[in-house]
Amino acid sequence: MEEKDSSSMRINLLTITGAIIGVISLLAVWCITRISVPAPLIGEEANIGLNLILKPIQSSERIADILYMSGILFFIGTIIAFFSPIGGFAQISGIFLLLIGTSSDWNAWYFDLKIGPIIGLISALIVLLSILFPITISRDMNRIGITARFLTFGKYHGLIRRKLVREKGRFLPPIKRSEFLHRHRNLMISIILIVLILAFALLIIYDYYTQPYSTSEVIISNDSDQWMEFAIYLDGMEKDSAGGFSPIIKYYNLPAGTHTIGLDYGRPSGIIDQNPYNITPCDGVIDVSKTFSIGPLSTKVIDFQIDSYP
To answer: Is there a contact between 264 and 285 (Cβ–Cβ < 8 Å)?
Structure first.
């Protein structure tokens, strides 16, 4: 049996993984804020985690401070987690503060929680779990002490014990199957953690392109100086209707990607006119349309100028 001192860098991969997932959660949509003054709802906005800090809601109510503090706590906890798993306590405190704040009744604000807090909670749990079950890339590692469990990076000092075999007068360390598997075990663990991180990143991208977090602003300019009616179509389906003179402005929430806004317009039969040829009501056929692309969490203006009957 041979014994010798060993010293190597220890990295808690589970803590790092939780911290990276925490960063990813800050880029996900945490909540939809809707404003009612007092009713009905007149506006809504999708807020990613970073927006809770960088673009806090403007309100004299306490909910503005609660959302800001929840974002600050989670952000600070995520940064700390890159150095120590105790950052998970700040992360989970920020999540619970958000849950308490958005579940309360406020005069002019309504909140719908989305995928961001869920990913944030998973991040906090992974970081805290790394205290009990640290995963490192060091081989020949003995039990980690209590102090080392609260550090993401650190030095490991221990003993390497190997059996020696005699071969032609020399002592050589044997190559064991267990050592070979141990090396590949570390590789497999690393691959699993990387796949976990990529899965959450892809989940956020999927969320952006399937949930209505972007906004299209449709402006209809009726330059004919005549009262007209409009049927508004979104991606081939009738979405809304409007009528009157210029301008008509409508807002629609839609996922990121490519979309088509169409108009079916005309002059309704209820309008008295001496010329019957001027009466051309909406007939269910799209008269004009525009196709556009919109990015995640962005706004696109679609302008229609109508100066005559279809």
So the answer is: yes
Report the mean per-residue pLDDT for the chain: 79
207: helix, coil or strand?
A: helix
**Taking the complete model, does pTM exceed 0.90, yes or no?**
no
| Cα 205 from Cα 227, distance rounded (Å) | 43
8 Å CB contact between 156 and 9: yes
Give buried/exposed letters for 58-90 (b at 16+ CB in 10 A, else e).
ebeeebbebbebbbbbbbbbbebbbebbbbbbb
Q: Where in the chain are the domains? A: 14-131, 214-306
* CA dist., res. 266 & res. 67, Å (int): 47
Tens of pLDDT along 203-222?
999 999 999 888 888 988 88
Candidates 118, 135, 257, 226; CA nearest to 189 is 135
Give the long-range contacts of residues 58-66, CB within 8 A, separation 24 or more. Answer: 59/108, 59/109, 61/106, 61/107, 61/108, 61/109, 63/101, 63/102, 63/104, 63/106, 63/109, 66/97, 66/98, 66/100, 66/101
Q: How many Cα neighbours within 13 Å face the side chain of 122?
A: 15
Domain 214-306 in this protein, CATH class: mainly beta
